[in-house]
Amino acid sequence: MKNLIKNNYKYALIILLSFSLILFSILTTIYDLYNDSKKTTTNEKKIDDIYEIEINENYLKQPSDKYIDLLKEYNKDNYNLDIYLLKNPTMIVIHTSECKTLDILVNTFESDILFGRKDITNYGQVNVGSHFLIDTNGTIFNSMPLNYIARHVIGFNYTAIGVENVGLKKDGFTLEQIEANKKLIQFLKSKYPSIKYIIGHYEYNDEDKEHYKAMIKNYNRTHNLPDRFDPGEKIMSAILD
Asked: For the domain bounded by 55-240, which CATH number is listed?
């Protein structure tokens, strides 16, 4: 009888020890996963902290099915590519909106279909747009998800992130806009190592520029590349300084 009790006690002890080891292994795994998650969050915060950037999503528009269909048509016609998503962007293009207020700019991008732009109507029906808007006070707004192509620069939309600055070219950028552009560019370059070129809209069709030589090959040259003048060399020099 004593041997039976002793054996049962031994088995119970073995079972308890095995259970403890399993529990310890589970808790260790959970702890490691928690630490990995915490490290990732910390790294993400560090990127934001380094560039001290705040991006407002009040005007972020999710593309509709109609917009996506029109975007596909545009990309097929202009680049011979069956795409609508922006992957591994290689350039950032800085624009002046030629709109006096943020509200006017937001309304311009609201429709899925292009209106009032006879100069580019023949290039496609999808409306113009941009990934970011920067107001005169320097506030940065994300207006298009970064994984979608936006129509903002002929010949390079398939590979370019667009940044629209509220205002008129003749007035230039405010100091707040200059600083906001700098921070946004650094943030995007840290997010996308694929980015190689930072250009002003006026530079897009310059055949001597590196971005043109490298990326124009995918463009359907049956369409012209009309001259643009925004935001100008002086503004771009201030941003890239």
From this structure: 3.40.80.10
